Amino acid sequence: MIVSIGSALVDILIREDDAFLEKICVPKGGMTLVDHEYIQRTLLLATDSPHIVPGGSACNTAIGIARLGGNSRFIGKLGTDDMGRLFEAGLQKNHVESILFRSHLPTGRVLSVITPDAQRSMLTYLGASAETLPEELSNISLAAAAIVHIEGYLLFNRNLILAALRSAKNAGAMISLDLASFTVVRETKRFLNEIVPEYVDILIANEDEAFAFTGINNELNALKKLAENTTIAVLKAGKRGSFILHANKTTAIAPIGSGNAVDTTGAGDLWASGFLFGLVHNFPLEKCGVLGSACGYEVCQSVGASIPDEGWHRIKKYL
Hints:
By secondary structure, the protein is α/β, with parallel strands linked by helices. It has one domain: Ribokinase (UDP-N-acetylmuramoyl-L-alanine:D-glutamate ligase, 3-Layer(aba) Sandwich), CATH 3.40.1190.20. The chain is 40% helix and 24% strand. The strands form 2 sheets. Strands 6-5-1-9-10-11-12-13-14 form a 9-stranded mixed sheet, sandwiched between helices. A hairpin with a 5-residue loop joins strand 12 and strand 13 (242-246). The longest helix has 18 residues, at 182-199.
């Protein structure tokens, strides 16, 4: 089983231009924490009608693993509102086991602004997910988990992510950490340098996140730095594919597909789905990377972090 731990969030997707990002003062491609009212005010300025779907980084990864046929579980916290019910229904529809805590706060949400170049810039209201307590995670048995995948957004809650890391380590599971966003890495770099050597077995980053963490522009040198204190390091390079470093051997994964991205929302999350599914099924690292690339490519061909059935049909050919 692969257990994913993260923020239970609903994605609100809108298409706008770069001028809109400047108007609302949001860094392109990053993630900014805001309150519920800020998202509502921003939606009033939007010209596009919102598309609403279950989301959150770890949830997206958990759903991808389940769609591949894997045994997948998600752990997070919801409100008791319509958004929470929508989120839970999405997990059930995609056959993801869940442990969901409840809060009186509204369910968290992410307003993703998708620009014409397919980049997404996120405004995140954590809501109920921010009320997840360390003791709630500490009291959950992870004994069935081969891999525990933790989203980097939890780095903003030091005690919570430490509880998740300690529970996973005590259970003997491999620990996977996705660095999530360059803005997250910048703000938590010192803490990351403390926890990665002690807990993390699989470290996953894109180019911006790798640079924010290592300060190294050259991707292969950055990958080596990422791998110094981990078993497996991954650097995703978008249209140029990805690189995996394990046991001093670098495996280059060629990109899959030639179509232009419609929306990059969930690309990294679904890459992790394919890669971790491959690992837990003892595929060679190259095949794990190819499966990750296939998932990442297909999710970029539609709006949001879900892959249509025909996309999953194409992906499963790689199995």
